[in-house]
Recover the amino acids of this structure.
């Protein structure tokens, strides 16, 4: 009898104990590394890779390499905590067997990655071309020269400073070994009477006056792909340093591209009605067009000027078009608003397609 009572008592205790147990939520392990989007000015780059180096000697193998970026330019790159120099590169072979290279040097290098942190690192690539580095004999034999141009999207960039560094100890920040005078209207610069040696070259154009100071949002910066230059006596080296514009979080503002059942189509045209290549159409939820993050973005236009935006949600949107995304529109950039409605808006219903929504673009004046 006493044994039965004991068993009953233990059973009651076990039921009470089980009822008091709390479910402990299972926590997903936190990731460590970086993520972002890879672009080439006005194009989202697919199949580009991100590289993490121990220092800025990119002739050495990288410590880590990401997987290829997706069709919207996005990448995810898990890596252990540490201090890294980040670059991005895409190599493609076009039909005529030419090798196209796109390269980005992250302007925030070096980056420190901490445990359980996953930071956004947007990377804007420039296209590397054969004419970016030329070496020739110099007519003035006692002189050794580095000269060239600073450009932005193929156009000369005046008022930029070019910096020569002897090594990477300063992470290519500060005045360096020599600093050029501001580039002229052709983007030209020149260094003469240089001793033989290896040189790293960068270019910067700040909105604030003078050559010194940190790069801010909206400033231009460029890292020469073929660094370091191996300069020999009596030689003239001619280079093209291609710049990008420093944006806040490159590509993070693109929330949706190429998905959804609601379609908006049209053409990007100039003031003469001719199609314009290399432009994106954007849709915004507020009328502050071009200065806030868009909700949707189109494909980049080809020679036909045609664009298409696929939306996931119906509603009222405000439409514009421009060459680049990230930061506010700048002087010289092709830019325009949808003008068939007074407030530049378009309203779409579920399952609806809007056709022939043309947008005129023109350069923004200084």
């Amino acid at each position: 009898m006493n044994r039965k009572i004991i068993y009953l008592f233990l059973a009651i205790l076990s039921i009470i104990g089980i009822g008091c147990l709390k479910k402990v939520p299972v926590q997903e392990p936190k990731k460590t590394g970086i993520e972002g989007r890879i672009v080439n000015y006005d194009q989202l780059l697919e199949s580009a890779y991100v590289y993490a180096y121990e220092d800025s000697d990119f002739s050495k193998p990288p410590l880590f390499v990401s997987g290829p970026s997706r069709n919207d330019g996005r990448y995810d790159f898990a890596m252990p905590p540490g201090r890294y120099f980040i670059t991005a590169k895409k190599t493609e072979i076009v039909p005529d067997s030419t090798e196209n290279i796109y390269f980005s040097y992250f302007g925030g290098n070096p980056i420190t990655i901490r445990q359980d942190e996953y930071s956004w690192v947007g990377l804007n690539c420039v296209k590397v071309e054969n004419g970016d580095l030329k070496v020739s004999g110099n007519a003035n034999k006692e002189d050794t020269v580095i000269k060239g141009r600073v450009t932005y999207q193929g156009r000369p960039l005046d008022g930029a400073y070019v910096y020569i560094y002897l090594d990477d100890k300063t992470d290519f920040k500060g005045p360096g070994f020599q600093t050029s005078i501001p580039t002229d209207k052709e983007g030209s610069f020149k260094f003469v009477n240089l001793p033989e040696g290896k040189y790293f070259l960068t270019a910067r154009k700040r909105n604030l006056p003078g050559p010194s100071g940190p790069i801010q949002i909206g400033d231009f910066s460029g890292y020469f792909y073929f660094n370091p230059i191996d300069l020999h006596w009596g030689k003239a080296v001619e280079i093209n340093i291609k710049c990008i514009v420093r944006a806040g979080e490159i590509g993070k503002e693109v929330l949706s591209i190429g998905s959804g059942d609601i379609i908006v189509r049209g053409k990007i045209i100039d003031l003469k009605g001719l199609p314009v290549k290399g432009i994106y159409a954007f849709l915004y939820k507020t009328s502050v067009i071009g200065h806030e993050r868009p909700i949707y973005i189109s494909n980049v236009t080809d020679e036909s000027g045609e664009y298409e935006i696929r939306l996931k949600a119906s509603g009222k949107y405000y439409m514009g078009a421009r060459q680049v995304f990230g930061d506010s529109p700048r002087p010289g950039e092709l830019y325009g608003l949808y003008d068939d409605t007074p407030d530049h808006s378009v309203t779409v219903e579920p399952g609806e397609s809007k056709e022939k929504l043309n947008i005129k673009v023109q350069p923004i004046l200084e």
About this structure: The CA atoms of residues 44 and 73 lie 5 Å apart.
